[in-house]
Amino acid sequence: MSNRLPPAWSKHLKVPSEPKVPQPKIALPTATPLSRPRDDDVLLRQAIELHQANRLLEAESLCQRVLARNPRHALALYLLGTFALGVDDEMAIRCFERAVKEAPQNPQYHLMSGEAYLKLGEHPDAIRHFAAACELKADWVEALCALGRAYTESGKADNAVPLYEKALKIDGGRSAIRIGLANALVSLGRMDEGANYMNEAIARRQDVAAAYNGLVSIRKFKEEPAELKSILAELKNPALDNKSIQQLHYAAGKVLNDIRRYDEAMGHFQQAKRSTRGFDLEAYRNSVDFLIELFSPGMLAAKAGHGSSSEVPVFVLGMPRSGTTLTEQICASHPDAYGAGELTKLRRITNGLAPKTRSPEELRSSILTMTVDQSKALAEDYLAHIRQRSPNAQRIVDKLPHNFELIGLIRVLFPNARIIHCRRDAIDNCLSCYFLSFNEDNSYTADLQTLGLYYREHDRLMRHWDRVFPGQILENRYEDMVSDQGAQSRRLIDHLGLPWDDACLRFFDKPGSVNTFSRWQVRQPIYTSSVNRWKAYGGSIQPLIDALGDLAGG
C-alpha cells in the first residue's frame, strides 16, 4: 500500500514540505498593529524574505516564534496564512480568520480570507469577506474584482456585473476588469456584450491571450474568422510568457477544430500541453486499489444505518466533459431542484478524516471506526453547506465530476442520495478533455496515452461501485441524451423521485449563470455534432486509442 495520501483525498491539501510550490505574492496590509515589539517586526520581515526565497518551513517557523510570544499577533497570523495558501488551504483559512478577528478593520485581511475561501469553492464565506473589504476600503478595484469573481463563480453573475462596471469607471487600465466583466456577461448568456469587452481588452493590449481564448470559446465557427490570423500573429511574439503561449495555442486549436482543419488543430493542442506537468499514473492506480479494498461489500454492510436519511443531495459525476453540465442543467430546470455547481465540500470532509498524518492508514482507520453519530454529524455538515445555496429545494445537485472517487463515502453518509454517473464514448470524452485547459489537478489530460490509461482507471473504479451498489447508480449516456432528449430527461427526473415538468426539456432557457467549460453549449438546444468527433483525427490519436484498449469507442 502506498504511504502517500491517495490523490482522491489530496487535491486541496498538500504537505507543507513540498518543494517548488508556486507562492502568491505577499501584499502587506495597509495598516498593522503599532504595539508589537521591534524584534517581532524584524522576524516577520525576515519571514517574508525567506518565503520569497522558497524557504517555506523557515519562514513559517519565524511566524510561529512571534505567535509563541503573542498568539493574537494579527500580522503574524496573516503572513502564516499567506504562506499556507496553495500549500494547506485549510490552515490558511484558520490563520486568516484569526487575523480578521484580531484586526476586523483591516481590508487586506478580509481580502485574503476571501481568496482562501474562494479557492475551496466556499462562495458564501468568500463573498462575506470580499464585501467587508469593499466596505472598509471604498473604490478598491482589487476588492471589487474579487467580489465580482466570487459572485460569477457562485452562479450570481448578475451581482458581479455592476461591481466590474464600477471598477471600470475607477481604473479602466486594469486588464482584470474587462476580462472579469466579460466572463460575468458570458455566464449570463449575454455573449455579444461579453465579446465586446474581450475585444476591448485586445485593443488595449490587456491580457491579450486570455481575451482571445475567451473570445473563441463562446461561439462555434463555420469558416475561418479574422481572429485566427491575429492569434497566429500573437504567437510569433518572442516576449510571450508560458501561460500566454498556452492560452493562444488552445485558442488556435479551438478555431481550427471548429473549421475542420484537424491536423493543424492537433498541432496547436500538442503545443499547448507542453508546459503541463506530468501525472503520476502509478500513484493513481494505487489510490483506486485503495478505494476498492476499503469499500468492500463487508465493510459497507457494517455501515448500514449510518449517515442521514435525507434525499436532498444529488451527485452528478463522471469524467470531465462526459455530459455532467448538461445533466445538471436538465435536473436543475425542474422547479423542485437546484443546481449547486461543482462543490468541494465533500472532498474537504474527506480530507478532514485524516487530519494528522494525511495517510491512507489514518483515513482507513477513520472510516472503519466511524460511529453512527459521527457519520450523522458529517452528513449534517454537508447538508447545512448545500442548504446555504437553496433552503427549500427538494433536490440539490452537486456536479463535481471527480466525486466518482468518493461514491463509497457518499453511500455511507447518504444511503438515499441519488447518484448519476455520466458516460460518453471513451475516445470522444478523452479528446474533449485533451482540447481544454484544466487546472493542475487534472494534469492527466496533458498526454493522450496517460489520458487513456486514466480513463481505464475511472472505468475500473466505476465497475466496482456498480458491483457493491447494484442498481443504485443511474448511468446517463451522452449519446442517448442527444439522440432522445425527451425520454432520457424523463428518466433522469424519475430517478430523482420528482414528478415530470416540461421545463426540463428547455434547460437552455433556464435563467441564471453557468460557469463551466460548457457554458456556451448549455445555452443551446441539444446538438449531435460532438458525437464520434474523434474519427476526424485519424492516426494522430492512435496513442489514446491504444491506451484505451477494449474501451475505445465505447
Number of strands: 5
- List unreliable stretches of 5+ residues: 1-24, 30-36
Outline: globular
At the first level of CATH, the class of the largest domain is Alpha Beta
Strand order of the largest sheet: 2-3-1-4-5
Structural class of the helices, strands and pairings?
mainly alpha
The CATH architecture designation of the largest domain is: 3-Layer(aba) Sandwich
User: How many helical stretches?
Assistant: 26
Strand content: under 5%
Give the proportion of residues in helices: 40-55%
How would you sum up this structure in a few lines?
It contains 26 helices and five strands. By secondary structure, the protein is mainly alpha-helical. Helix 10 (191-203) runs antiparallel to helix 11 (208-217) and helix 12 packs antiparallel against helix 13.
What would your notes on this structure say?
This protein has 554 residues and is mainly α. The chain folds into two domains: 1-138, Tetratricopeptide repeat domain (Serine Threonine Protein Phosphatase 5, Tetratricopeptide repeat), CATH 1.25.40.10; 281-551, 3-Layer(aba) Sandwich (Rossmann fold). The chain has 26 helices and five strands. It has helices at residues 38-52, 56-69, 74-84, 89-102, 107-119, 123-136, 141-153, 157-170, 175-187, 191-203, 208-217, 226-234, 242-258, 262-273, 281-294, 297-302, 324-332, 345-351, 360-368, 372-387, 407-413, 426-434, 448-468, 478-483, 485-495, 542-548, and strands at residues 313-318, 337-339, 395-398, 418-423, 473-477. It has a five-stranded parallel β-sheet with strand order 2-3-1-4-5, sandwiched between helices. It is globular, with a radius of gyration of 24 Å. Residues 1-24 and 30-36 have low confidence and may be disordered.
